[in-house]
């Protein structure tokens, strides 16, 4: 286990909202909500009024009447993320991505060349601000868990180092809900038994804790509460899943057929995107998962595993639509504000296996042809007719002569 505080957790602050404020000077210093019917991200100026994600835009505006609502621009967020990760990898080759806006960095081998982990963290924050134009918070600690807690504690736009000899003093007074894996329900169970702080959790033997949270979670939480987190910063890992999702927003549930048609259309667009990314990465997956969020912010997932892996759009879409049919009664009853699809179950280090047609339509060639067109002329060059009819705001691309 690493014996020094050399792990950085770098986490962009209110990422989507910060990109909007960066790109539109009129939004700087103002409360910004990113989303359609649901808040996808909120600036810290909006969070000060109690706005949280996910929250309906109407409710958020009632809490913060002066908030500006910005439509999501995912291409801008993707470009900003790539620029930030270039700074990460220019800082150290040991970068472990967590999501589009956060990563762990191991900087233990850079002390003689660059400086202390604290100075590296400060320089990284400065570079992200100057080169990408975004605020970022960095936590520095001996373990991943402590580094992530430190960055959350230092937000927004801060830097916090947890020294090895000060780990317990920093960690143990914090509320038990700060622990990974302890949400509102688990936190309520623990507090009902007098476990209010992480220090209280650290003092309870794991076999006793298992009665409240289960055997596996008990030993995991007890270890983290006592500063035991042996996970290294890993690099070069291939993604275990490829997915995409789309916020639909709240809408009156007067025409269920139309609502289902819109969800199906959005799902088809998501499958197009996911399958294209899989083929580009030369990955094939077996399990297709449909993700739904309802009007009351509850969620549901439905999955199906294929007999063999695939990256073909038509096969993934067929399974996704079958799962949507299964979930239709829930959508009728509870509405739907978000739909997503993900593919998992990749064979380790396996590329795409070519198939003989055996009389089947050659949709694989069509997939590759569409991939080539979109790669050359942009993702909006070829769209499904249903997306065009819905008026998704796509502009016809300008093709070269």
Automatic annotation (TrEMBL):
Under what name is this protein listed? DNA polymerase IV
Q: Which reaction does it catalyse?
A: DNA(n) + a 2'-deoxyribonucleoside 5'-triphosphate = DNA(n+1) + diphosphate
Species, as recorded: Mumia zhuanghuii
User: According to the UniProt entry, what is the EC number of this protein?
Assistant: 2.7.7.7
Looking at the record, the residues that make up the UmuC domain are 7-183
Major location, coarse class?
A: cytoplasm
Q: Where in the cell is it found?
A: Cytoplasm
What positions constitute the catalytic site? 102
GO biological process annotation, one example? DNA repair
Native organism taxonomy: Bacteria, Bacillati, Actinomycetota, Actinomycetes, Propionibacteriales
Q: How is the cofactor bound?
A: Binds 2 magnesium ions per subunit.
């Amino acid at each position: 286990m690493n014996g020094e505080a050399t792990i950085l957790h770098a986490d962009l602050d209110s990422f989507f909202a910060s990109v909007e404020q960066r790109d539109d000077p009129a939004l700087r210093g103002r409360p910004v909500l990113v989303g359609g019917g649901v808040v996808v991200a909120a600036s810290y100026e909006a969070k000060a009024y109690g706005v949280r994600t996910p929250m309906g835009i109407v409710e958020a505006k009632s809490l913060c009447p002066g908030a500006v609502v910005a439509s999501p621009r995912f291409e801008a967020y993707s470009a900003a993320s790539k620029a930030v990760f270039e700074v990460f990898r220019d800082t150290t080759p040991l970068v472990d991505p967590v999501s589009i806006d956060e990563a762990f960095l191991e900087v233990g081998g850079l002390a003689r060349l660059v400086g202390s982990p604290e100075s590296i963290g400060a320089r990284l924050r400065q570079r992200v601000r100057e080169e990408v134009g975004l605020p970022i918070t960095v936590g520095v600690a001996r373990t991943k868990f402590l580094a992530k807690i430190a960055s959350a504690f230092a937000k927004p736009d801060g830097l916090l180092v947890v020294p090895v000899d000060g780990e317990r003093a920093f960690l143990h007074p914090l509320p038990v809900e700060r622990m990974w894996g302890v949400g509102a329900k688990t936190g309520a169970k623990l507090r009902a038994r007098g476990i209010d702080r992480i220090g209280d959790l650290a003092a309870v033997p794991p076999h006793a804790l298992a009665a409240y949270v289960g055997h596996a979670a008990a030993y995991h939480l007890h270890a983290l509460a006592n500063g035991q987190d042996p996970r290294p910063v890993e690099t070069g890992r291939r993604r275990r899943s490829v997915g995409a999702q789309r916020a639909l927003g709240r809408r009156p549930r007067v025409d269920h057929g139309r609502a289902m048609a819109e969800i199906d259309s959005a799902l088809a667009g998501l499958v197009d995107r996911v399958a294209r990314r899989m083929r580009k990465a030369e990955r094939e997956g077996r399990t297709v998962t449909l993700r739904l969020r309802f009007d009351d912010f509850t969620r549901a997932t439905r999955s199906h595993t294929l007999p063999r892996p695939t990256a073909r759009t038509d096969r993934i879409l067929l399974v996704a639509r079958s799962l949507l049919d299964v979930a239709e009664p829930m959508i009728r009853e509870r509405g739907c504000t978000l739909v997503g699809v993900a593919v998992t179950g990749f064979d380790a280090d396996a590329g795409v296996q070519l198939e003989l047609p055996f009389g089947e339509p050659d949709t694989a060639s069509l997939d590759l042809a569409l991939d080539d067109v979109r790669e050359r002329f942009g993702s909006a060059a070829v769209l499904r007719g249903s997306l065009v009819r819905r008026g998704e705001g796509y502009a016809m691309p300008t093709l070269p002569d």
